[in-house]
Design goal:
The protein is α+β, with helices and mostly antiparallel strands and 157 residues long. The chain contains four helices and six strands, in the order βαββαββααβ. Helix 1 runs antiparallel to helix 2.
Length: 157
């Protein structure tokens, strides 16, 4: 699929939000890369995204994905799962897809966006917001909970 850019300061924090200053310890970049790789692998598997022989390698703000999948949708969702993590700004997707389906487009949420607004702009009707919500399952838990910097799949109209 290629190399994708994301907003590194947006997304889920792999290390959590509740750290206190006195709880912070120095961790090597190698260990951070290992933890990111493990967590992203776990998130992809736990979300039901089907990628055989999945290998996730983090190197600073870059994550490389390798493996095989039957669907373009699972391929794109793996990319979004990896990229929508705090501190990740690029995903190099090397996952091989068995079927040749058209690729969806990606959209980075801006302040003031709603799924309805995005649907009107990209799909021609605000009423098609549920198509975007469903295209991003299980990455989105609620159609009203999107945030600036988050990247979403926009299905073909």
């Amino acid at each position: 699929m290629g190399l994708f850019d994301f907003v590194a300061s947006a997304g889920d924090k792999i290390f959590g939000d509740d750290e206190k200053k006195e709880d912070v310890v120095t961790v090597s970049q190698e260990r951070i890369n290992e933890i990111r790789s493990e967590k992203i692998t776990q998130m992809i598997k736990n979300s039901g995204i089907q990628v055989a022989n999945l290998k996730v390698t983090a190197d600073g703000d870059l994550v490389t994905l390798e493996g095989n999948t039957d669907s373009q949708q699972d391929n794109e969702k793996a990319t979004l799962t990896a990229g929508n993590q705090f501190g990740i700004s690029r995903v190099d997707n090397r996952i091989e897809v068995a079927s040749s389906e058209p690729e969806a487009s990606f959209y980075t949420v801006k302040s003031g966006d709603t799924l309805s607004k995005i649907a009107k702009e990209h799909l021609g009707s605000a009423n098609k917001y549920m198509e975007i919500f469903e295209a991003n399952q299980p990455l989105l838990s609620d159609p009203n909970k999107i945030y600036p910097g988050q990247t979403l799949r926009i299905p073909r109209a």
